[in-house]
Amino acid sequence: MWKVRAPMLLRVMMDTCREVYSVGQDAPVKTVEIPVEEGFVTVSIDGQEVELLLDSGFSDVSVLDGDWYEKKYGKGACQERFSGCYFCPKEAPCNFAENDMIATGSFGNKSAIRSIFRSGSLLLEGHRATGFVFKVSRYPVWGSDTWRPWGHFGISALLPESKSLKPGFKRESVLDSLKRLGLIGRLSYSIQADVRQHSMMNFISGQVTLGDMQNESNTNYVFPFKHDIRFHRAYTTAWVSSVKLFDAEGNLLTTESPYPKQPGSFMTLMDTGSNNFGLPMSLQESIVKVLEKEFKRRDNTTRIAGMWRRHKNGFLYIKKEAFNYLPVFGLRLNDEPDSAPIKIHPKHYCQNAGKDEMAVFVRYSRLSVLGTPLFRAYRVHVDYTNHKIALLKN
Fold this sequence. Notes:
Elements: E1 11-12, E2 17-20, E3 29-37, E4 40-45, E5 48-55, E6 61-65, H1 66-73, E7 85-86, E8 103-106, E9 112-124, E10 127-141, E11 151-154, H2 174-180, E12 188-193, E13 206-210, E14 221-224, E15 237-246, E16 266-270, E17 277-279, H3 283-297, E18 308-310, E19 316-319, E20 328-333, E21 340-344, H4 346-349, E22 350-352, E23 357-360, E24 362-364, E25 368-370, H5 372-377, E26 378-383, E27 388-393
Parallel strand pairs: 5-11, 6-7, 6-10, 16-25, 17-24
Antiparallel strand pairs: 1-3, 2-3, 3-13, 4-5, 4-9, 6-11, 8-9, 9-10, 12-13, 12-26, 14-27, 15-16, 15-20, 17-25, 18-19, 19-23, 20-21, 22-23, 26-27
């Protein structure tokens, strides 16, 4: 999770660490395969099993202080799913007041987090990493009235300013630590979402593989990270050079850009920690215009107003009978000659929301994020060794 983020929820269980042979490679590459259930992974830290949000915009393992959590939400609250609780041992309590090395951060949902660092044993399906550094965190401010805080299993690289929190203290990303400790052989990951599975908060289920290599001949698109002075290729970023709307048959819905104030090329983040598709454009208004135009064409003008509504969560909710008229979003990622023309279909950005409605997880976002809809549409491989992104249609 990075500094701008939409609310989210996810769960994961971990599979085995194994050696696989990549096509065209002489040596085996160690990988860890992790099943993802509703966005969360399950790991064991110092013998305590915790469920953590799989977050490609976050670099650490961050668990929640169990004593703080149950004081805030009630005794037994840590037994609930997705709590991410970790109880510090009595002989080595987590004392935030006296700790001289506290990391702080904030998120787009107005949450604020404070964390201290601990070292312990990380167990991934029988494969143990000792001396693994992780965060124990509290939220002084939590930005959701619907969901409680959760922990994180981050798979991004470290931002440069994150590496020297204190003289003599060396920061590492999760991928760096797992590679150094011999669990994986490469600073990379691949995410394969199961497009048939949906969750209440619209986050992916499927599998993430850490440390793998990608055979580029088997991918649809391969392009480099966008080099950005703010993120320094720590996060999975790319240029969006154009956005167009199409119908289900691939016909362009507008002869001109549907966004008269389109900002031109802009950076986007590919983020498992976001449950939606957000661009610095009036996407919801464009969807409504497409629906209105289609219903007028079919002489159903009296029913237009009842076909959609805005929910208090900020997303559009449409009647299921309008689903087939929703547009396909066509984005061109990166610049020529490496541009990738991807398409996000309604089945990727919508989810059932009751008997008669569907939630449309598309919104305006000042800083662009391609979350769940992208991962439903494409298998995403990210390699921090050569700073390349590969996409393969699901």
